[in-house]
Description:
Order of helices and strands: EEHEEHH
Mean pLDDT: 88
Shape: elongated
Number of helices: 3
Low-confidence stretches: none
Strand order of the largest sheet: 1-4
Number of strands: 4
Number of domains: 1
Amino acid sequence: MSTLKPYSVEISIVTVVMASDEDHAIDVAKHTAGEALRDLSAYDYDYGTPREIKTDEHLARVGWDKACLPYGGDGRTTLKDILAEIQGEPLPERDTKTIDMFEDKQS
């Protein structure tokens, strides 16, 4: 079993937008969120308290699906498999001969 465990961490930023009213401000913030995120460094965000994800219910509360791949993982193991392992179920067998046959080969 991996020593890594899934955690939810809320990340928030404050941005300033030009708008005609509060509803318009939300629309502008949604439209420019990508630009605002690109303008920031990792130190410009507020980070919430990490909460360990141990069950399907915990995962559902943060709006993630079990088919998702968590950030910082191996890039192949879904949250479904990770939660199953945490709950004592073995990981599914993977065919090592074909596990990466669909990965893009870079030369």
